[in-house]
Structures are given as structure tokens and as C-alpha cells.
Amino acid sequence: MAGFLVLRFGLAFGGLTGLILCGFLFLLWERLGYLAKMRHYATMYENIYVVSNHPDDDREVKIGGLEKVIVNVGYSFVVKEVQQQIRCLEKSGNVFHADHSLTDYQRIAVLPLIYQDGEFINESWKEFKERVELTIKTERSYRHAMLKKADEIWYNVYSNDQNGMEWKKQIKSK
Known about the structure:
- There is one protein chain.
- The chain is mainly alpha-helical.
- The chain has helices spanning 2-9, 11-42, 78-92, 95-98, 125-150, 152-158; strands spanning 48-52, 70-73, 110-113.
- It is globular and about 70 Å long.
- The termini are far apart.
- It has two domains: 1-42; 45-158, no CATH class.
């Protein structure tokens, strides 16, 4: 496309037009990526676990089946990433984060898990991975039990991907 413009209108005009077109396409691509990211955050109902990598060699904690709730980050960036995840939930308008009628435990939590943090200062890497797995599995079990108890039809439609059911938002009366 840019080559055609160069041949048709000359190097200066065609090149400039090609650059503008590329810039526009880049911005469009970035915007579409941002919108997809916000759509993802808007539909989340799981807690987010920001897990530190190993401080010496940047190893990540990988736990089969839990990758979708773990955000691995460099050891020194956990708190910063927690703040970023919260901003994404806020910008997306996620109802499990924005609804102030929910208790703190009902709202999506963004939880930091840092290697050798606080009382775990002497833990090995293996112990840290075990702590991460136990923490996430325990919190998820409690959260999913709470979600199912709060609205079983919603839970079956959105968490269990069940067909043949229709969920309608309940309007709270005052």
C-alpha cells in the first residue's frame, strides 16, 4: 500500500502518507487490545493472585490449573502490579469490584504472595510454591462456595458453563 502511494504521489507525500497510515493502524491495534483487556477484566469473578518470582533467578511459580488466576511478576514489582490490577478492575467497571454493596470478602481481591515475606522469611522456594498453591486453592474453594450459595443459577451459567439455563439480574428493592 505504502509502495503504491510512493509511486503514485512521490517519495515525500507517499512516504508521509504511509507513515501516517501505519501510525493510525498501530493506534487502532493498541485500542482494540485495550478494549479486549477491559472486557476480560469486566467479566472476572475470580480473585487475582500476584505472585513474586524468585529474587535471584526470576523463576516463576507455575501450578497446573491455576494459571488463569496467577499473575507472575518480578520480585520487586509485586506491590506495583497489585495496584495495576486494581486499576484495571476499576477502569473495566467490574461489578465484583465496583459494587459497594458487596462486603470486602465478596469483592474481587487482588492478593500479593511474596517469597520469604513476613513470618515466612525462612521458607525455601519449594515451601513458597506449596504455600502459594495452598493459599489459592483454599481461597478459591471458599469464594466459589460463596458465589454458588449467593446465586446458584448465575454460578451454573457463568462458572460451570451450563446450557439450558437463563440468568436474569435480580433488581434489589428498597
